[in-house]
């Protein structure tokens, strides 16, 4: 898989799309949790029930999980990593001072203004220096 390196401008331009995808992933996770609870409840209430119905519901849960996983995997192929769905934490591969790094964004932030090294995380993120577009370059 070829890596894609983002400038701050490129990553910021993708934020509306990323925000939508994070919202979709959150909604899918909530729906999956409700589907699982409903299935467990049905299984407890109806031990002699139609196993075909349970199989269909389990298959729907698995399909929904697969769909969400494919969405996350697609972002990974674009060198974008979803770190946390709850907080909407997302990293974009970039270079800072000639080193591979991540542009770090969290849902609720207006734009990307932080970065961290590849082996660092959110707690170690730093403010982009000066003019962000001159510090993060596309390779």
Automatic annotation (TrEMBL):
Keywords: Coiled coil. Residues 8-45 form a coiled coil. The keyword Coiled coil applies. This is Cell division protein DivIVA. It comes from Sulfoacidibacillus thermotolerans.
């Amino acid at each position: 898989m070829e890596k894609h390196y983002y400038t701050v401008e490129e990553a910021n331009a993708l934020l509306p799309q990323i925000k939508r995808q994070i919202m979709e992933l959150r909604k899918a996770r909530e729906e999956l949790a409700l589907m699982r609870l409903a299935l467990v409840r049905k299984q407890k209430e109806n031990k002699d029930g139609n196993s075909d119905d349970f199989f269909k519901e389990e298959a729907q849960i698995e399909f929904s999980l697969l769909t969400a996983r494919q969405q996350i995997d697609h972002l990974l192929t674009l060198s974008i990593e979803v770190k946390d769905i709850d907080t909407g934490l997302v990293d974009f591969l970039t270079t800072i001072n000639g080193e591979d790094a991540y542009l770090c964004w969290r849902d609720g932030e207006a734009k990307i203004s932080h970065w961290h090294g590849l082996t660092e995380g959110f707690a170690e993120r730093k403010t982009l220096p000066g003019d962000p577009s001159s510090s993060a370059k596309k390779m």
